[in-house]
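User: My collaborator sent over this chain with a note saying "see what the structure looks like." That's all I know about it. Can you take a look?
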Amino acid sequence: MAAKSTTFVLSHGAWWGGDWFWRDVADLLRAEGHRVFAPTLTGIGSREHLQGSGVNLSMQILDIVNLIKWEDLTDIVLVGHSYSGMVVSGVAERVPEGTIRSIVYLDAFLPEDGQSLSDIASNFKDLAGDHDPVPPPVFFAGDNEALKSILEKKGTPHPRGCFEERIKLSGARERIPLKTYVLAEGPIFTAFFEKVQSDPSWRTETIACGHFPMLEAPEKTAEILIRAA
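Assistant: Without extra context I'll predict from the sequence alone. Here is the result:
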């Protein structure tokens, strides 16, 4: 049992889901005495039936904001993976200052004010084409056939508006006391890691696995999140 219980809110990346995606990490954190919430964002995963043209980044930010509000969560560790770097950045703008004790970008996008994911990701147009919703990619699995099989089975198309809406940031993220960027193997998110690596207000860590640490290395991922708390 951990000396002090921490509340973790885990936000998954595009195309996937909360419950199954974070299950192993959530179980490990709970075994240490922590509270864990891993909601599924509107329009994907177990909430794919809510998919529609109105689903955008703002709505998925509100998924997390309203969880925090209605569960009366305070002093939380907020974790965003991949696309959810956009989501957690927006959440920081929408909750009272002090609600988030620590924010963790787990191999995630780190947007600036006025950017959309499609602005940041140079390969977005090649990946998405004209699709709406955008079908899930599996190339992140690399040669890991077991992981590829999971992503093919569990992935759901993601509303395009989530990728094209530009985020509005006023600096709330920078005022969070603890900020951590975790880089997994692969070149896609290296620029974000390097951007904060020399900033003394940020912690940085690396993890020796591919883009899905919660699926590929759940024990190491849980350890990193506990350190970030």
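A starting point for your reply to your collaborator: The chain is about 35% helix and 15% strand.
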